[in-house]
Structure formats: C-alpha cells, structure tokens
Design a protein that fits this description.
alpha/beta
C-alpha cells in the first residue's frame, strides 16, 4: 500500500456524468460562469480566482484574474499546482496556472444567505489540491462549500532576498498563504451569488490546512474574511519535527531557497531570480526532494514569519492573546504518528529523539519508552502525535479561555474497517473519510461508520450555521475549559472525556520552555 503524506490522500469523488444538468448562470465580479446540477446541488468547478502565477508573476503576491464577458463553462476541475510525484494519487493535470476554486451549493436562489464553509487542503504545504475533496456530503447538509488550490512547495514558499526587494511591502516567501487570503477575499465578494452568506464563513482544514488556519488567525490580512474555524490535526507550531525548516524562521527559509537556486545553477547568474523564473515548474519540482519521514534530508518550503502575512512568532502572538477571537472546533486523531513512521530500531528511535530534543532526550525517551523493538512504532506514534498535533492543539484551545468565544475539542479514535485502517489505525487524516467519503459497505464500512459520519457532518455543519456544534439527536458536546479539559471522543461510540494526554502535554510544554 502507498502511504500518502500529511493528511493528503485520494478521496472518492462523485462523478458528474449523464445525470447532471446545466446549473444557473452565476455573475461573478470577474464575469459570468455556468456549472452543473447534481444530486440536488449546483456545482461549479475550476473557477479562476486569481491571475495565473506564471512568468513574471511567479513568486509575486496574488493578482486579480482578468475579467471576461462570455459565459465561462466551469464543469471540470482546474489543474492542480505543481508538486512532487508519487506521494499522492492525483487526477487531472498539473500546471503552474493552478489558482482555481470549486463551489457546491444547495441554494435555489441567490438570496438564501446559507452558511459558507471554505476548505484548505493539507499536504505539508507541498502536496494536494482542492479537487481531492468532494463537497457533496457537506453541501447537502445546507451549507455552501468551497475549496481551492494554492501554490505549494518552492513555488509557494520560496524566500530569496531579491524577491523582498521586488515587493512593495519588502516581503518574501508566503505566496501560498497569499493565495489562501485571495481565495477568502473572493468568497467575501462572490459567495452571495451562490446563495451564501459572506458574513457567516467558516474556514476548515486538515494538517497543513489546519496549520494554515492557525496562522490566518494571527494575520491582520485575514481581518473580516471569516467568522469561525475548524482545525483538524494542526496548530501554529510543531511541524518542524518532521520538516526541520518549518519553524517559521526567515533566515532558515532563505538558506533553503538559496540552496535551491544553487542546485538549479542560477546562483551565479547576473539576475538569479530572472534565471529561476526562466526555469520551468517541472525543472524546479524535479530537484525538490520532499519527504516527511524521519531522517529525511529533503528540502522544506513552508510559511515563514515575514512581518506581513505572519507578523511575528505565532506562539508568542497566541500567548499575548493576539489571535483572532472566533469560535473553534479543533482536535486530532488517535494514531497521528503512524503515517510518518519508518521502520527503526530502539537505537534509531533514541537517536531521532536526541536529534529533536538534545539535552532532554533521556527524559523524552522515559516519557515515550520502547523496551523492545516491537514497541518502537507505538512509542514513535505517541511521541509524534503529542509534539506535532496534540500539544499544539491544546495550546490553541487554551488560548480561547482568555477570549470571549468558545472552543470545542475532539479526539477521533475510530479505526476505519478498511485496509488503510488495519495498517495505520485512526491515523493522520482518517477522519477525512467520515466527512467527505460516502460510507459504502462494499468498501468495508459498517453501520457504526455510517452513523459516525452522519453525526460528524451534523456537528461540523451545525457549527458553521450557529457557532455551536450541538443539535437535535446528537450527544452533547461541551465547550473546552482549562480546568476540566472536557473533550468529545469520536469513535465506535461518542463519549465525553477529560484531561486528554495531560501528562504528556504538560511534559512537552515544560521541555520546550527549557
């Protein structure tokens, strides 16, 4: 079985075939579009939301798309952004001209003001696309659903000093984040035409998508663009344990970008950026040896603290209460670390811990021990889950206790009864099947999975509608507070737990402070 990294994997997408019909013509600020109707929804795919970031626009802030007058047919997904091959099963074609979004709406008219949910895909900021996530199941719950592509890897997060000199703001690096902001601005301007309420927008994402949301929560450029957030497996820090350069430090990002420039033999050019822009996207991606497995020496291109999109160290801003005060759902899965595990001995495991924690390595091994070789995988799973996903999620949840709005914490423990689940457990990204994929018994799912999927969809869309996931027929989900740390377990049955991974999180928090 091929393992797909950082929460990105191929999800079943409903085919728009002969049962589809023409949808209403929608007038956007850039021009009119047509789509299809399917299963009671109007669906518009491959809508350009920004100018193609090609040629001189490569590594520049997102610019408006050129307007059009004739009706643009939007019935198929646009190309996905260039990325390393072999990690994710993709459909369609890849192109640097990839800034497209997709809309599913149940609205029958433009004046319904339905809640809006905007999905930001994961993939380590290097893999994936919006088109991997079909919005049918969510939209059928009475919301307008949007997803989109954004620039990835070295095309999305290249931080060369010459680019800062070109920028009116004197910044570089966060081009993929700028795409996300542009997509949200597009929603604000245009979603009413699809029957959506631009003043009731929930952004949701998984893995790097969730981490992106945690950064958007401290970005002044995101003011007024969303009202609620759903963060699945990812907070404002932690990914540096798998991508060493993903700690947001600009100097590290510059070193990595200069390394790429040298690999492509552009570093000695009179104008290195002109030389880099003369390279094809395929040439750049070909030398980008991306990996998320332990011991990887691959390159990493991720968001950076640039003083503009990300104004300062994210953790510091959260501690200071400078994160946006909006309601949140946030959580993580029981086996977050299995997707990133590569076979290792106890000695290898200890060596990896030493690499990550230095003088605290003995303490960390004692907290996450492996007494025999068979224990290493489980110990690595628990350690990675804690340092990358669980503790950062708790950190964000606790930040809400200093604000006026509420947070709802979940722990997803259901092991999908499929080969994927048998191999990896309730792994990183396992919850995605329950909100995007029909629970087909032929695929191995049971009545338990069907029920859990329906409940999760209700929780998620109730939250989008009201800011509270609770509703008729659902087990009550209490708000998170620091004293009891109540959370909901989404598993074979739904139940309320307290103080989830408290000992491990307290320990890691103490280690990181010292």
């Amino acid at each position: 079985m091929k393992f797909y990294f950082y929460g990105v994997r191929f999800l079943f997408c409903l085919s728009l075939i002969s049962v589809s019909f023409a949808a209403d013509i929608i007038k956007l600020d850039s021009g009119p579009i047509s789509g299809t109707t399917h299963d009671g929804l109007q669906i518009y795919l491959g809508i350009p939301y920004a100018a193609p970031p090609v040629g001189k626009l490569r590594w520049k802030a997102t610019e408006p798309v050129d307007a059009w007058e004739e009706v643009k047919t939007c019935e198929t997904y646009g190309p996905y952004c260039p990325q390393p091959e072999g990690h994710v099963k993709m459909t369609g074609t890849s192109s640097e001209d990839c800034l497209y979004l997709n809309v599913w709406t149940p609205a029958k008219s433009s004046n319904e003001k339905l809640p809006v949910m905007v999905w930001i895909h994961g993939g380590g900021w290097s893999l994936g696309s919006g088109s991997m996530y079909d919005g049918t199941m969510i939209a059928k719950k009475g919301v307008v659903f949007v997803n989109f592509n954004y620039r990835l890897g070295p095309l999305g997060f290249f931080a060369h000093p010459q680019l800062a000199a070109e920028s009116p703001q004197g910044v570089m690096g966060n081009y993929g984040m700028m795409d996300q902001l542009t997509a949200l601005k597009w929603v604000k301007k245009n979603i009413a035409a699809f029957g959506g309420d631009p003043n009731n927008v929930t952004i949701l994402g998984e893995s790097a998508g969730s981490m992106s949301i945690s950064l958007l929560m401290i970005s002044p450029l995101a003011d007024g663009l969303y009202n609620k957030g759903i963060l699945e497996s990812g907070g404002p820090y932690g990914s540096q344990y798998l991508i060493p350069l993903a700690d947001g430090q600009m100097q590290k990002a510059i070193i990595e970008s200069e390394k790429l420039t040298k690999v492509l033999n552009c570093d000695k050019a009179i104008d290195p950026i002109a030389a880099m822009r003369a390279k094809s996207a395929d040439e750049i991606i070909k030398v980008y040896n991306f990996s998320l497995l332990p011991w990887s020496s691959g390159m990493g291109f991720t968001p950076v603290t640039d003083g503009y999109v990300v104004p300062d160290d994210p953790k510091k801003l959260y501690v200071q209460g400078k994160n946006r005060d909006v309601p949140l759902i946030l959580g993580f899965n029981a086996n977050e670390g299995t997707l990133f595990y590569a076979p290792m001995s106890i000695a290898d495991y200890k060596k990896w811990i030493t690499l990550q924690f230095g003088k605290h390595s003995d303490e960390v091994f004692a907290m996450f021990p492996a007494s025999k070789a068979a224990d290493v995988r489980g110990a690595f799973d628990r350690l990675v889950a804690t340092i990358i996903f669980i503790e950062p999620t708790r950190f964000v949840a606790r930040s809400k206790n200093k604000q006026n709005t509420k947070a709802y914490l979940y722990h997803f423990t259901r092991v999908p009864p499929t080969q994927f689940g048998k191999t990896l457990g309730a792994s990183h990204g396992a919850e995605l099947f329950y909100i995007f994929e029909p629970m087909n018994k032929k695929a191995g799912y049971t009545d338990v999975d069907i029920k859990l999927s329906n409940q999760m969809l209700d929780y998620w869309t109730n939250f989008a509608k009201t800011g509270d996931p609770n509703g008729k027929g659902l087990p009550h989900w209490p708000t998170y507070n620091r004293k009891t740390e109540e959370n909901i377990e989404l598993g074979e049955k739904i139940q309320i737990k307290k103080h989830l991974f408290k000992k491990e999180c307290d320990f890691i928090q103490q280690v990181q402070q010292n």
